[in-house]
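Cross-check.
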Amino acid sequence: MFGFLIFLHVIIAILLIAAILLQSGRSSGLTESFSSAAESIFGTKTNTFMVRTTAVLSTLFIINCLVLAYISKQESKSLMEKVKINTQSKESAPEEAKPAPGNEQKEVSPAVKEEIAVRQNEVKAIVTNEITEQPK
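Predicted model, tokenized:
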């Protein structure tokens, strides 16, 4: 269905472009180039026919755009909305995972912790200073 609507959308767009280009405007448009062919196909009231054709095609184009947007929104819903999540109780929950050998957390020295705290305070001071300064 979606593929057919895309195909229809492309066909309507091409026909709409052709209808707009064939209309006579200030500089007479492309209908003057094909005046004998256009009048033989559409008759003497070529301009009226082209205006109606453009109106119908533009209406179909807008409706098709809205339908495609609606279908696209419906298809992009999450698949996880329908899945129930099983929560485990504490009794059946597995024990805490232990780190793999060689990946144990290492103890950080107090000097490093102090340096980290100093750097964090410097960053906070810079951020609050930038927030309080108003550009003129």
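The mean pLDDT is 75. DSSP finds four helices and no strands in the chain. Passed to J.P. for a second look.
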